[in-house]
Design brief:
By secondary structure, the protein is an all-alpha fold. It has three helices and no strands. The N and C termini lie far apart (75 Å).
């Protein structure tokens, strides 16, 4: 490996330049985050089928839940299946 020798002044200057680079990087990252927040994501339009499925799922899910509100064994899977069946009609 190469042998590198620095004077104390050169070493201190190197440390300061690294600190400045880190400060600049933090500023750039924070500005990028601010820009990202302001732009935001465009929401997808909810399809007609999805609206029907949502309504059907809410309607049938009660059959597959216990009194305490927990899902019965295989209840969620069966509720999904029945909701798809109802939504297709």
């Amino acid at each position: 490996m190469a042998d590198v020798r620095l004077s104390m002044a050169e070493y201190m200057e190197l440390i300061e330049s690294v600190k400045r680079a880190n400060d600049i990087r933090r500023e750039v990252v924070s500005e990028a985050k601010d820009i990202g927040r302001s732009v935001g994501k465009a929401k997808k339009k909810v399809s007609a089928y999805n609206r029907k499925y949502k309504k059907a799922f809410k309607k049938v899910s009660g059959k597959y839940r216990s009194k305490s509100g927990k899902w019965m064994k295989n209840g969620f899977k069966r509720a999904v299946k029945e909701a798809h069946k109802v939504a297709k009609k």
